[in-house]
Here is the input.
Amino acid sequence: MRRVVLFACVLAALVFAAEFFLKPLVVAVAQPRIQAALKTRAVSVQGLEFKFRPWTFLRGRLSITQLQYSKLKLENIRSRVRLAGTRVLFEDLSGQMLNGTVKGNASVKLAKEPSYAAALEFSGLDLAEVIRTFELKEKLQMTGRLGGKLSIKGKGSKMDVLVGNLSTEHTGGTMIITDTKFLENMARGSGQQLDIIVESFKNYHYTNGNVSVSLQGGDLVLDTGLEGETGKRDLSVTLHDFSKPK
Here is the structure.
């Protein structure tokens, strides 16, 4: 009986010490590092909250209401966080983006100019929302959803690597290109008459497709191949200065 009472007293003392002595120490050490990892000129963060259990030293859970890079917003972010020397590790990360979901892992190396890397998997990305977010509606209209994997690396406010592949989900969608200059360039490149090119991209319905994503000189390049009942369509869309947000 005495051993049980003694064990209970020791356990209570440990909980008390963790709550009132260890917790402030962990907060003082961990929270500034996490904030430093997420604070760059290129990234805007809202609603950052870090929670931890005192007995898991320098580990915890992170939640962010919204993180914005350039025009792209990632919302309702949740992640396990672990500090390892000068690195902040974000594990089992999840969030919402472009009406779809994202999950994966990321790390940030703390320095005067922090470097970062992430391996992310996406599902249900809404192409109509992509068009709206990047203000492309004067060039084309598109419906459907994408999923796939992307790898990201960068340093400070500059993204150096963004590469991966996305593919269409469910039953495909539609695409209409309304940018006359884009269609003219496509006609010259293919050697076909302009009216044929215009007709081929008028309310085109695709059943499946793939998008190869790459970063070239700061521009985000989306090389797209689509297939539908009326044949294949290939096009390349460039988002200029994507990795150099103002």
About this structure: The chain has one domain: 2-239. Confidence is low (pLDDT under 50) at residues 2-29. The helical segments are 2-38, 127-133, 180-190, 194-200.
